[in-house]
Specification:
CATH architecture of the largest domain: 3-Layer(aba) Sandwich
Structural class: alpha/beta
Oligomer: single chain
Radius of gyration: 21 Å
CATH superfamily of the largest domain: Type I PLP-dependent aspartate aminotransferase-like (Major domain)
CATH topology of the largest domain: Aspartate Aminotransferase, domain 2
Number of domains: 2
Distance between the termini: 37 Å
CATH class of the largest domain: Alpha Beta
Number of strands: 15
Number of helices: 11
Order of helices and strands: HEHHEHEEEHEEHEEEHHHEEHEEEH
Strand content: 5-15%
Strand order of the largest sheet: 2-10-9-8-7
């Protein structure tokens, strides 16, 4: 669909003002080595494929369980939580993030004075200036004031910068697109600070299985902590669209209220079956994550030896630049040779590329073509 330059007379003002998120390119014109969307280079567990086949029965004519109870029980058991009321599941982690923005970071009416409601001052939601670019989209969609906190010149996050009056904090850990990770103690201190003012701290752990410390075991300690995971990365299920969130029951109930005001059936029967099998098969996915980590570190060393600057990464991607080439130029040169990576034409990251870690063969081809270009 061609985007209209001046919008449409049928759009609401909010729709017209939005700048939607731009997903990574999914090409149809030719075959590429795809290193641009942080998908896993390895297939799902055989147990997942078996579960999907078993679920493809005539009961697909029936609605799935709107509470996703079996899957939530499996996830609660996986993390040693008291029960499924500590778990929320949705159609990918992006949907859960959208629900969380609506549930916890919007306008708050706390008291009433006479017949007139009294609203709290709208302090801004905080997230880094360089991070997952869906966060400002969600904030604008729900009319949530926000403030971006600059990361350092080395793209590091200082959690002390987030210890200020706010309507909550959202952090990706590891951060995207940089791959840098915060330590668990840093996030615990930040969460404790905002617990005093009853503000939610949401930790988006989409890439945590590739080398970062998870906060999943801390949700029982902090009633203001939400930890969001996805099955799209370390569990090789980007095409199934399943995410989940861990938190205390009051927070999970807030997410449920938003979901059931939007769509009660966010996960279909196939997604529920496949996701449950993926959560259960820890050995397979642990081995796949270890392979990706090893390939990442080998690729990082080779690129550094070629003169690239490569940030330390705890994710399934690396963030790179070369001082002799502009980012867009290198992006186009790689694309012309059949390699897709991600480039953002903006600000401080203009000369950087995000490169998803592929198979050893994919990365060998990427390194070889980089040598040819340089």
């Amino acid at each position: 669909m061609t985007r209209l330059m001046n919008g449409s007379p049928y759009w609401s003002d909010r729709c017209a003002a939005l700048e939607p998120y731009t997903p990574g390119e999914q090409p149809r014109d030719r075959r590429y080595i795809k290193l641009n969307t942080n998908e896993s280079p390895y297939p799902p567990s055989p147990k997942v494929l078996e579960a999907l086949k078993a679920a493809a029965q005539d009961d697909l004519r029936l609605y799935p369980d709107p509470t996703c109870l079996a899957l939530r029980k499996t996830i609660a058991d996986r993390y040693g939580l008291p029960g499924p009321e500590w778990v929320f599941v949705g159609n990918g982690s992006d949907e859960i993030l959208a629900f969380a923005f609506a549930a916890f970071f919007g306008e708050r009416k706390r008291t009433a004075h006479g017949s007139d409601p009294v609203f709290e001052a709208r302090e801004p939601l905080l997230f880094p200036d360089i991070t997952y670019s869906f966060y400002p989209v969600y904030a604008e969609l729900w009319d949530i004031p926000y403030k971006t906190i600059p990361v350092s010149d080395a793209f590091e996050i200082d959690v002390d910068d987030f210890k200020q009056g706010s309507n909550g904090v959202v952090l990706a850990n590891p951060n995207a697109p940089t791959g840098r990770a915060l330590g668990k103690g840093e996030i615990e201190a930040l969460t404790a600070f905002h617990q005093q003012n009853q503000r939610v701290v949401l930790i988006d752990e989409a890439y945590v299985d590739f080398g970062a410390e998870s906060m999943a075991d801390q949700v029982e300690c902090f009633d203001n902590l939400l930890v969001v995971h996805t099955l799209s990365k370390s569990r090789s299920l980007a095409g199934l669209r399943v995410g989940y969130c861990l938190g205390q029951p009051d927070l999970i109930e807030g997410l449920r209220r938003i979901k059931d005001s939007f769509n009660s059936y966010t996960l279909d029967r196939l997604a529920l079956a496949g996701a449950q099998a993926a959560i259960e098969d820890r050995d397979y996915y642990g081995a796949m994550a270890a392979k990706i980590i090893a390939t990442r570190e080998q690729s990082r060393e080779q690129l550094i030896n070629m003169g690239f600057e490569v940030l330390p990464s705890a994710a399934n991607f690396i963030f790179i630049r070369h001082p002799a080439r502009r980012g867009e130029e290198l992006f186009q040169a790689l694309r012309n040779r059949g390699i897709l990576v991600r480039h953002w034409n903006k600000g401080r990251i203009y000369d950087y590329l995000r490169v998803t870690i592929g198979t050893d063969e994919d990365m060998a081809a990427f390194i070889r073509i980089c040598r040819e270009i340089m």
